[in-house]
Every structure is written in structure tokens, then in C-alpha cells.
Amino acid sequence: MNKNLISKAADKLELMNILLHESSLERCELDPLLYPDLIDQQGMLSISFEEASYSNEDEDFNIFRAYVNLGVRAVKSQEKNVEEDEVLFTIESTFRVEYIENEKLTKKEAEEFSKFNSVHNVWPFWRKHVFDVVQQAGLPSIVIPLMRGMSLKHKPKAKPKAKPKAKPKAKPKAKPKAKKMQ
């Protein structure tokens, strides 16, 4: 991840819209009531992007679009000796994130920005979408975790602190007595 390129790209773009572009649910023939108690999750992520120019009577403008493809599949928890996972259901979606491009991005800026910022923008929508699909389809609950994204702020490594020398315990100070009001 190149933080400098991401920052430069962010300065050139304004978030315009986040749209669900495609979505699918595939399930196995097993009745959801018979699903096993232990289900493992496997995730998928891929990103692509494009730029487009538009004109109307008032102005010309450029749009930067990132397509964030996400997927999760629930598989039956199995012993390690089993070669192939038994897939119970799969949810896949593509979100289209549109940005107004105030200044042309370089290809490297577009790539780095898409991998970091576009995923970050889409993640709450993805979590909500999976929650809704699972509930509406009567499938066992799965949880898309919070995004533990990377931080763009540089955090210097903390230097180990020297252990302080033991200080002798001080006697507690006596509390001041309240004066009577006359």
C-alpha cells in the first residue's frame, strides 16, 4: 500500500455515490433447518475500476468508478482430512462506487485508491447487505466482521519506557477541615 499515492488520489476525488451493482445468493439443496451447528466462513474480494467523461449543457465532468466485488460462503466445518469443503450457501455482490474526478488520476493512484478507499467506502454496505440476505433467506446467521483497514496516518513506534525507580510511599496528606460559617 502506497499511502502517498492514496492521499494524492483522495485529494483529487469527491465521493458521489455507492450503488449495489450486482448481487447473487446460491444455496445447496440441504434445508436450512438441517444445517450443521458449526459453520465456517470464507471470503472473497476483487476490485476493478474505470474512468468516464460526461457532458451536459452546463459542464463537462469526469467520473472515476471502482467496482468492489465481495463474496462470502458458508461451509460445513469439517475435519482437516477432508479435501473439499461442503458449501452451504454463497453470497456475492458487486458495489459500484462513483467519485467526481476533479483532477486526472495516474494509473498507480487509481489502483492504490481503489484497493484501500473504495473497499473502505463499501464495507458497511456489504455488511448490511449480507445481514439482510441471510435474514430474508432464512439462513443461519453469519457476521461480516468490522473492517480492520489500514490507517493512513503514520504512527511512530513507541520507544520502550525505562522502568521507574521505586519511590518511597508518601504519607497521605490530611484533608483540610471545613470552616464553620458564622
What does this molecule look like?
- The protein is an alpha+beta fold and 182 residues long.
- The protein is 23% helix and 35% strand.
- It contains two helices and four strands; from the N terminus they run H-E-E-E-E-H.
- The chain has helices at residues 3-12, 107-137, and strands at 13-27, 39-55, 60-76, 87-101.
- A four-stranded antiparallel β-sheet has the order 1-4-3-2.
- A hairpin with a 4-residue loop joins strand 2 (39-55) and strand 3.
- Helix 1 (3-12) packs across helix 2.
Layout of helices and strands:
Elements: H1 3-12, E1 13-27, E2 39-55, E3 60-76, E4 87-101, H2 107-137
Antiparallel strand pairs: 1-4, 2-3, 3-4
Helix pairs in contact: 1-2
